[in-house]
Write a structure and sequence with these properties.
Elements: E1 3-4, E2 26-28, E3 34-36, E4 40-41, H1 49-61, E5 65-67, H2 75-85, E6 93-98, H3 105-119, E7 126-129, H4 137-150, E8 156-159, H5 163-172, E9 179-183, H6 193-202, E10 205-209, H7 221-230, H8 234-244, E11 248-250, H9 256-263, H10 272-279
Parallel strand pairs: 4-5, 5-6, 6-7, 7-8, 8-9, 9-10, 10-11
Antiparallel strand pairs: 1-2, 2-3
Length: 295
């Protein structure tokens, strides 16, 4: 898993970024091309203007990666905002996900078709199994492989898969997952080193969701001290931490100024000593569902 093409491009005028360069650069996936390193998560971004405005503001800043899911209820709004932007479709990277109730051959086919219709963008750049639901996930993965071969999606992967889930998947998969999206931040990075290292050794790109810990650790003293020393915000420190780790990082916000703040993380870096201090914060924290012991 290596950075390619455009590592950390600086945009002197963030209001007018080069539309050909995703803010923060890209990482090569094992299939499906490159994925922008910095994205915008759209969970709870809301329907209607909430999501559309968030996407528009992010696009204005140079963000070219948007993470949604059928369960989020805002695929239509995301597609509408991307189409209205005038940015060529191939310059915008869109992720969606298969929900838990849609596993199995027939339901997974229908769910994918419905996501494609709601987005109305021609294809989905990355389609993930949202959670490792027992029983039918093998059948669902077969549907994703077929969708990839048919060109309905350009890359396939998983979300919330721990090492044992990945090992099971590799026993039957014909195509390696391009991505594994899991909760990651300094407060659980060492705890989850096993799964991130497993992905690294097999070339699976790691995506970090909830990098801001749902604000539960934004007031951490160490994060705050590094932020003050840097003239940055705690949120920026946590996002930059994920980028330094080599993870695709997906902060979420529907607030214009917060989106701008979260995007201002690409033309500077944390020192090795600062990264070590942040690593020491690990407490095994999970602010979302923890799949560690899920079958």
């Amino acid at each position: 898993m290596t950075d390619t093409a455009h590592p950390d491009p600086a945009h002197p005028d963030p209001a007018h970024p080069d539309p050909t360069l995703p803010l923060g650069g890209t990482i090569s996936m094992p299939h499906g091309g490159d994925i922008p390193r910095l994205g915008l998560g759209l969970f709870r971004a809301g329907s209607g203007s909430g999501t559309e405005n968030a996407v528009r503001w992010a696009l204005d800043l140079g963000i070219r990666h948007f993470d949604t899911a059928s369960m989020y209820g805002n695929e239509e709004e995301l597609g509408r905002a991307v189409r209205a932007s005038g940015i060529p479709r191939e310059r915008v990277f869109v992720t969606s996900k298969l929900w838990n109730d849609d596993h199995g051959r027939g339901p997974a086919h229908r769910a994918l078709e419905e996501s494609l219709q709601r987005l109305d963008l021609g294809w989905i750049d990355l389609y993930l199994i949202h959670f490792p639901v027992p029983g039918l996930r093998r059948e669902s993965w077969g549907v994703l492989e077929e969708a990839l071969e048919e060109g309905l999606v350009r890359a396939i992967g998983v979300s919330n898969y721990m090492e044992h889930h990945l090992r099971e998947l590799l026993d039957y998969a014909s195509i390696l997952p391009a991505v594994n999206q899991i909760e990651l931040h300094p407060f659980n990075a060492r705890t989850r080193h096993g799964v991130t290292d497993f992905c690294r050794r097999r070339g699976v790109v790691v995506q970090a969701y909830s990098p801001l810990t749902k604000a539960q650790r934004l007031d951490d003293p160490v994060v705050g001290e590094i932020a003050r020393e840097r003239g940055r915000t705690p949120a920026q420190i946590l996002i930059r931490y994920g980028l330094e780790k080599g993870w695709v990082t997906l902060p979420k916000s529907s607030n214009r100024e917060r989106i701008r703040e979260n995007a201002d993380v690409v033309d500077w870096s944390l020192s090795e000593e600062e990264m070590e201090r942040l690593d020491e914060l690990d407490e095994g924290l999970a602010v979302t569902w923890d799949p560690t012991h899920a079958p």
